[in-house]
Amino acid sequence: MADDRTTTIHAAGMRMLDTLGISDHLPDAATPIMRIAVAEGAPLTGLAARRRPDSDLSWQASEDPLAYVVRNADLQAALMAALASTISPASSASTGPKGKTDGHGNLQIMRGATLAGMTRDGASMQMEIDSGHGNPSRLTAGLVVACDGANSHVARLAELPAREERHFQTAIVSILRAERPHQNTAFQRFLPGGPFALMPMAGHRLSLVWTMPAAEAETLMVAAPQMFEAACMEAFGQSLGYLHLDGQRLAWPLRPSVRRRIAAPGVVLAGDAAHALHPIAGQGYNLALGDAAVLADCLAQARARGLTPDHPSVWHGYEEGRRAERFLMSAATSGINQLFARSPTMVRRLAGAGFAMLERTRLKNMFSDIATGGRLTRAALLEGRYPGRAPE
Ligand SMILES: Cc1cc2nc3c(=O)[nH]c(=O)nc-3n(C[C@H](O)[C@H](O)[C@H](O)COP(=O)(O)OP(=O)(O)OC[C@H]3O[C@@H](n4cnc5c(N)ncnc54)[C@H](O)[C@@H]3O)c2cc1C
User: Fold this and answer.
1) pLDDT digits 0-9 by tens, 87-135
2) Residue 331 Cα to ligand 1 middle (Å)
């Protein structure tokens, strides 16, 4: 079955992909989000549903989309195509540590290789690479940028520990096809067990990320399709008509984590290695783009001063440049999730009423800044220019 999983990329993230020429390789499959609608509690039914709007809080794009929904498979293919176009054909990919390139630096792709060990030797990092063919090879680098996921081996080797939350929720991911048009709206409904999120895709399809207590997810994963659809209708309501299951169901046990530090001499962590967020706001990959953009600025600044990537200003600058957004996003996503998923009904209602009140306050702008990206973190690529080049 086709891999239909999707990622929501905020407007600033898409600007970065445009600047790097990556979106040129994305087919028209990136669906723009023009409206975000957030609601609290079970959907209303009957007359009450007709009298009230479908959300307590909503944002409407004035012109440019707020964000885009992209199939992961398309994004990965575009990233690989953009990478291939920057390196010479003879050296694009290899199964072992051979394919050296020139042009855009010494780019080398080692598929299926794992990092077995890493030590610091003076100003450089020595890495032991296991390519699965017996003899491990060695690599020397001034700076290691580790994107090896939430369970980062590099983080352990560099002694950058994580604080993990206890696992109590699972996210079920799938595709639904709605009877009525979604009008490029992203929906988020905060339910007692966790948020139910629908992101618009082409046609009437929507990407579902439904977070719930782990035991409930186990039951829904094996429920007959009609039972699953009925559960979706009960959770989301009638506003899009009947919701048909239109893809396979996948389950993701959630265990958000955050690290106090994400940089050490010669090592920086990026992506989920640095911060595994609750998917409540669909921001994990966007944060990873922010990591890359800030690191690119730090490296460009060092180069402009005649410094090499191993210079302390690079990893210090990166640590500082990521601190605010990392902690804010981690606290906001886990905090909002805990508030709605674990609080007594009365507290949840109050929070829901708070949402409705936010609609008329300036705080609403803060949430829209998160949704569109690029405000909490300033970086050249997120603003649509190459690091080191002045704004036009
Ligand atoms: C249900 C769900 C929905 C989400 N939706 C969104 C969304 O809409 N928008 C958004 O921005 N984010 C979203 N996210 C978050 C996003 O998916 C992650 O933030 C993102 O995938 C992190 O990418 P990563 O490359 O940092 O880590 P990973 O995807 O975990 O990749 C790590 C890679 O490192 C490799 N690796 C690990 N150890 C080693 C080793 N020792 N040697 C070599 N390689 C190694 C692994 O094989 C893997 O390929 C969602 C997350 C979930 C769970």
Assistant:
1) 655 444 443 333 333 334 567 788 889 999 999 998 899 999 998 877 8
2) 19
Closest CA to 210 of 167, 275, 254: 254
Cβ atoms 246, 175 nearer than 8 A: yes
CA distance 324 to 136: 39
pLDDT at residue 382 is higher than 50 = yes
Torsions phi, psi of 346, nearest 5? Answer: -60, -40
Q: What is the mean pLDDT of residues 68-87?
A: 90
Residues recorded for the chain = 392
What distance in Å separates the CA atoms of residue 30 and residue 276, rounded to the nearest whole number? 24
183 neighbors 61 (Cβ within 8 angstroms):
no
Is there an atom of ligand 1 within 6 Å of 36 CB? no
Three-state SS at 31? strand
For residue 362, what are its two tokens?
A: 């300036």
Cα–Cα distance measured from residue 290 to residue 326, given in angstroms and rounded to the nearest whole number: 10
Distances in Å between the Cα of 315 and the Cα atoms of 2, 118, 127, 324 are: 40, 17, 18, 16
Sheet holding 137-141, edge to edge: 114-121, 124-130, 137-141
Q: How many other CB atoms are found less than 10 A from the CB of residue 173?
A: 20
Q: Quick: pLDDT tens for 187-241.
A: 999 898 889 999 999 999 999 999 999 999 999 999 999 999 999 999 999 999 9
309 lines ligand 1 (CB under 6 A): no
Beta bridge pairs of residue 244: 177
Q: Is 380 exposed, middle or buried (0-12, 13-18, 19+ CB in 10 A)?
A: buried
Average pLDDT of the chain is 85
As a whole number of angstroms, the distance between CA 250 and CA 171 comes to 8
Query: CA 184 to CA 61: how far, in whole Å?
Result: 10
Residue from 272, 278, 337 to probe ligand 1 pocket by mutation (most atoms less than 8 Å from CB): 272
